Amino acid sequence: MSTTPPATGIRVESLTKRYGARSVVDDLSFTCEPGTVTGFLGPNGAGKSTTLRILTSLARADSGTALIGGVEYRDLAAPTRTIGVMLDARALHGGRTGIETLREAALAAGVPVSRAEEILERVGLAGAGRVRVGRYSYGMRQRLGIGVALVGDPAVLVLDEPANGLDPEGIRWMRHLLRSFADAGGTVLLSSHQLGEVQATVDRLVVIAHGRLVRAGTLDEITQRAATRVAATDMRALRGALAALGCDAEDTADGLLEVPLDPGDVGRLALREGLVLTSLGAAPTAGLEDIFFSLTDGAAGAATDPTTASSAPADARVPQEA
Length: 322
Description:
The protein is α/β, with parallel strands linked by helices. The chain has helices spanning 48-55, 79-82, 98-109, 115-122, 138-150, 168-183, 195-201, 219-223, 235-244, 263-273, 288-295; strands spanning 10-19, 22-32, 37-41, 63-68, 83-86, 156-160, 187-191, 204-209, 212-218, 228-232, 250-251, 257-259, 277-282. Residues 1-6 and 309-322 have low confidence and may be disordered.
């Protein structure tokens, strides 16, 4: 029996999905809280699309749950009034106009048809509402797809690669839209391969590889780490002191050691051990791209997620937003 969810977050718990003997999603757990934009990252074949399809009841899990406000999608009393979804804007019917597409979405959501005009303006397509979707650029389809997701005035947004095809102005618009949605108490789950855009948009990250959770936390927690680059007159003694402390030290290209400690901790260690330091400073903060590849190293060649097998390759040329 359909029920109304008591809250509007997302909870994925012990989710597993197999195709034959292969686990595409493997005991995956994470949460997305109201008021946040969560980036969902992983290399091709990591299981992102399968997870989103299970969350929206387009696929069934072998075990585990994927809930919106504590309820499975199929049990929501009014799904489109609770969660707005865009998994592939290319699936929009090319023979309908933009306004027709939004009016049909409004009827399906049980909201006034007049909402279509409002959404058309909100997504920046007011001047193209009477144009058939088949004549839209990829970026315009992305805007329309986001509009369809917004028609029901949902509390949750789930978007797969929404920035694809958008020009710089469109990306800026999308970033503002998602931030405003979350600041108003909404929950956003955003899957994307555009790491720079993710870093500029989200405040939380969920990183998966081979269907398993690799790291989850705030953007700062994942991209910022305490690390120091240091050198001493006696590098052998410095290495020994660090090893005795249980700290791994990595050689850098400029002859320093990089260690997972704050500069102050390294300075106190040197003072205690009577070491003369010749260089001491915080290591550069790693960008999201570096962190992503370090977390998912070796996963890029994973077998393709079956739910995305028919998708265009990542480097395929697509028309940009008009």
